[in-house]
Design a protein that fits this description.
The structure is a homodimer.
Chain A: H1 13-20, H2 24-31, H3 39-52, H4 58-65, E1 72-77, H5 83-97, E2 102-107, H6 112-124, E3 129-132, H7 143-147, E4 152-155, E5 165-169, H8 171-184, E6 190-193, H9 200-215, E7 225-226, H10 232-243, E8 251-254, H11 257-266, E9 277-281, E10 295-299, H12 301-317, E11 325-328, E12 330-333
Parallel strand pairs in A: 1-2, 1-3, 3-4, 4-5, 5-11, 6-7, 6-8, 8-9, 9-10
Antiparallel strand pairs in A: 10-12
Helix pairs in contact in A: 1-2, 1-3, 5-12, 8-9, 10-11
Chain A binds a DNA duplex through residues 12-14, 22-26, 28-29, 31-32, 36-38, 41, 56-57, 59-66.
DNA sequence: TTGAAAGCGGTACCAA
DNA sequence: TTGGTACCGCTTTCAA
């Protein structure tokens, strides 16, 4: 017979108080480092705390203090396993750690339902604020909570239907710069590989490509656009397909790190014509060591995280004030 | 003059009850989807909930339910921005999401003090369990909490001074396999680049290198070992230095992803002699496209996450039972 | 310096 | 089907 011995429940303040022969309130004072306790009493209580393995219960404490301050921030990103999301998370962690914040994190996978569900979960847990890399088209479902004082900062994507602070990369400008780089190299037929067109960021990058071509007096040929690409394999296949066109591109702009990797894989295949030049959005480790050299538009993810943390803390300190939109410039890294 | 208008506090169940003209308990029933409420009343309450923007307060609920179930898991990894940690996190997320768990995440940066501080923080927040990629040498400071029923699973590193479940990679075996691969290629002087020797994982990998050499009847020359390496640059410099030895290595085993990248950078430099063959622990994206082809020991991070989640849930369901140690095999990917 | 009692936002038990 | 009351673990107020 297996007996599942329930471990003894954790000691509470009351138990510490009883064991130390003092009142509950005195224990509270000691645990919170408040003054007004005789040194001898304080020592006695601390000994019992140690002895009973007492651990402060933040939930109960927060509840009683009432002030809606859990010192937790909810962070919803696309995919924690993706380098971009992971680095953003890390930079948020660094920017908030010293003030004692803890991060509740989750991945959305471009799923709007998951976003709403997780946002609700975070709110139920009374996070002090929310950093959101939205998967949904519109975030108006958050309006009531924002009105109720929940600080929200959208990152990477501009909020729609909701007036909150946000931090984005200059997607259009970055893509334009990358495309112009290819134009300067004499390319006239430049393909574009993009993510789901439902993602604002993806649309902005497509727009940058279009702007660069138009400004150069070229037609933005729709036949050279492949979007809705989400994986390395899809990008690879798309590029190979483009190269088999009657009038194939001589260069390609890959609008996301995963897609750039896909292009580089495609270049290893038997190509029907000359090797196209690749420029990608997002730098990827080791790419600087690869032949052919691939120029990239690099985003300063750490700056995005820092800015988001700053905006959040400002709202945390004082609700109100106009909504802010920080645009972090993208840098062209020519290789 | 700036007025910081405090937003109205969130509506409570009591307020919903008053507004709906029912008792507090009835609202609780509706919110929790409990039976025993007339359809008309339920609808009325739901309307008021919507109207007042009521949001359930999990903290208060958990407190009253008492059962120590916050449905939150604390995950402490080395560095969220590192690919390995990020993928582990993601696989833990996937494995626990369906059961409604939320992840509290933080990076330790090999800092034992930070580990203790963050563990305390997690416990104060009453996480249901802890996944720990330890930075500390010994985890005995957790003994009281484990005895009190806190499920802890150590990942990547075997716990010391604490009897808890753990999931590790076969570091020694993986490194041995990688080193044997180099021996088969005829190499006799094989260098080893490793992380801080205080990290058990790093020591195990060094041991694998040693075992392979000894088994081949060779001396494990300490002059060919460089450890304490933490960055790409440090690994690069270390390899270049080794290659300038009077009797330089003809091959090198890099014991971590960052160090392998460093080696690949070194190969781009002006080398004093022939190019050494590199084998690395951890696969890195794009490495398969690089020349020279680099063989790697690949770890199944997702399997580690799944196993950790499984062990955790087992403890969550029923405390007790013998401590388990899952070893995930490492795979040699020959290129 | 110390403690008793009330209450934070909910849930459980039992009575109506 | 509904509601009153006690209470989860802690902090606050105020009195001793």
């Amino acid at each position: 017979m297996t007996i599942h011995q329930q471990p003894p429940p954790r000691a509470t303040m009351r138990e510490v108080a009883t064991a130390a022969g003092v009142s509950l309130k005195t224990v509270s004072r000691v645990v919170n480092g408040e003054p007004g306790v005789r040194e001898a009493v304080r020592r006695k209580v601390e000994a019992v705390v140690e002895d009973l393995g007492y651990r402060h219960h933040r939930g109960a404490s927060d509840l009683r203090r009432g002030g809606q301050r859990t010192r937790a921030i909810g962070v919803l990103v696309q995919d924690i396993a993706n380098d971009y999301s992971a680095r953003l998370l890390r930079s948020l962690e660094d920017a908030t750690r010293e003030r004692g914040f803890v991060l509740l994190t989750a991945s959305l996978d471009e799923d709007a339902d998951r976003e709403r569900q997780l946002v609700a979960e975070m709110i139920a847990r009374r996070v002090d604020g929310l950093v959101l890399m939205a998967a949904s088209e519109r975030q108006d479902y958050l309006a009531a909570d924002v009105r109720a004082g929940l600080p929200v900062v959208c990152v990477d994507r501009v909020p729609r239907g909701l007036a909150v602070d946000c931090v984005t990369i200059d997607n259009t400008g970055g893509t334009r710069a990358g495309t112009e780089h290819l134009l300067r190299h004499g390319h006239r037929r430049i393909a574009f590989l993009g993510d789901l067109p439902t993602i604002p960021t993806a649309r902005e990058r497509l727009e940058g490509w279009r702007q660069a071509l138009t400004a150069a007096g070229l037609e933005a040929d729709p036949a050279l656009v492949r979007d809705g690409l989400r994986t390395v394999g899809a990008a690879r296949d798309a590029l190979l397909e483009l190269l088999r066109l009657p009038d194939p591109p001589t260069a390609v702009f890959a609008a996301r790190n995963v897609l750039t990797v896909g292009c580089l894989h495609a270049l290893r295949e038997e190509l029907p014509g000359p090797q196209p030049e690749v420029v990608g959005f997002d730098d990827v480790e080791l790419m600087d060591l690869l032949e052919p050299r691939t120029t990239v538009v690099r985003q300063d993810v750490e700056a995005v995280g820092r800015a988001a943390a700053e905006l959040l803390e400002r709202r945390l300190a004082a609700h109100g004030g106009p909504v802010q939109h920080v645009v972090v410039p993208a840098e062209l890294v020519v290789r």
